[in-house]
Amino acid sequence: MQRTWIREVGGWVWAALLAIITVGQVAASDRGELLFRDGDSLVVALLVRSVADGESFDWVLSSVLFLPELVVFGMLWAIGALFGIGTNALLVVNAVLNVLALYGALRFVAGARRANRSPVLWPVLAIALFCVLAVTEASASRDSFELASLLLTTTYYSATIIAVLLSVGLIRREFDRPSAGRLLPVFLAAVAAISVLSNPLFVAWATLPLSVLLAIAAAYQGSRARALPLLGWLVGGSVVGALARIPFSAYIGNDGIGYAQPALWPESLRYYGALLADRVMTPLGAVAAIILIALLALAVRRTIRAQSTGERLVAASAWALPLCVTIGAIALGTHAARYLEPAAFAPLLALVASPSSIRPLPTRKAMLAVTASAAVIAVAAATLSVPRAAAASRVLDADLQCVNEWVTASDRTGAGQFWTVRLPKLHLDDASQLVQVDHRLNPYPWLINRQDFTIGEVSFLVEDANSSFWELGSDLLPTGSIDCGRYTIHDFAPNALPLGPLPL
Q1: What is the pLDDT of residues 235-286, one digit of tens each?
Q2: DSSP labels, 40-79
Q3: What is the tally of structural domains in the chain?
Q4: Is the dihedral of CA 390, 391, 394, 395 positive or negative?
Q5: How far is CA 423 from the centre of its chain?
Q6: Model confidence band, residue 181 (pLDDT cutoffs 50, 70, 90)
Q7: What is the pTM assigned to this prediction?
Q8: Which domain holds residue 471?
Q9: Within its chain, how far is the Cα of 78 from the centroid?
Q10: Which residue(s) pair with 482 in the sheet?
Q11: What pairs with residue 463 in β-bridges?
Q12: Do 327 and 472 fall into the same domain?
């Protein structure tokens, strides 16, 4: 029992070291743009801040409600407020927690400890490979085939990724039990319900492909008695989650149906093909592709050679989930790389499908030497990564500081377009001083609190290279312009710019 406890703690320690190293590398690279400054990836932080500031809640979100992500970051925000920790530092901590949650999910999938099994070693190896994938991703683009590092953000579906893996683990553990369990199917339904309520993508990433695998398993007499109930609980939980979204409809700006355009499947195929080609043509992208191909090959091999139904379902999930999601995304004519995230995390299941002990075992001295050497390297790398991540979170953005100081000193309210205004808004002392509009000064209610628009008018505009040309009319000219590096503030005081009507 004592050795088991030590192994489990050791697994979490290794995962923490790897998470710190990975987050430090990603945060210090151009990928840090996605972690700290991207307009899309700041929605959770903006919403949590809005609630913490006591604003009236009238948020409009996408089809994703980010419920688990909001709970986690909300708790971090409360801790940060208590100890004076900045927003960027909280985003770094959240990234580390996301990687740890991924390890926990993989450890759960690996199953219970039994004779001749190493259910800690293989999840550690899996998380190590995931971290290698993440650190090969160094661009600032949100729409590239650099999918692993998206887990580090608070926005790009980290909770859904964990929920998919937990679902696979619950199915596996139900099949591994010597007698049918009572609570595991209920837990599966609960995970499905909460996940679909928060993010309908769970249906495409888990409910549909896992239902197919369970239906195939049900075709065999030996596994039918467990496969059919699990299938029912999974689908039932997903239906409950979909129905539970109805009371939240006032906050959902897009139900996701508009994203499906089946007639555009040829364009979608070319789009994803071009992203894949761009990725594998780089040296680091080629390394990532080799790792994923090797994992998929291992998954197919373990599917064929599986010794139990649970093992076979996990191994099959490693290649079936990416295959189903990719085919579905193309068939629906989508154009967003993030929808294909299962291609980055599902293949890791190949390593935990059959977590057998390594044979033949090396000598005790060799094991100690290898483990000690790896531990020293990991601790040293993590130690160096902590100040690196901290430095990345504290990088002085003089342009952003210039905007925030001017806006705060003005004691007035201004506006900016989506990709421009969200970063300054998050870091302002008073976030209500900036309003999100389109290029015609109409309110732009997308991933923002509609209460902002009750102000009715603004007196300055913030723009940068991401802003579209303003269409204000020839009689509306700024009385002055303030240069803040990549930002420009156009001041119209003492004149006021009325906002357009709020879209229905």
Answers
A1: 999 999 999 999 999 999 887 777 788 999 999 999 999 999 999 999 999 9
A2: GGGHHHHHHHHHHTT----EEB-S---HHHHHHHHHHHHH
A3: 2
A4: negative
A5: 19
A6: low
A7: 0.94
A8: 399-498
A9: 21
A10: 489
A11: 488
A12: no
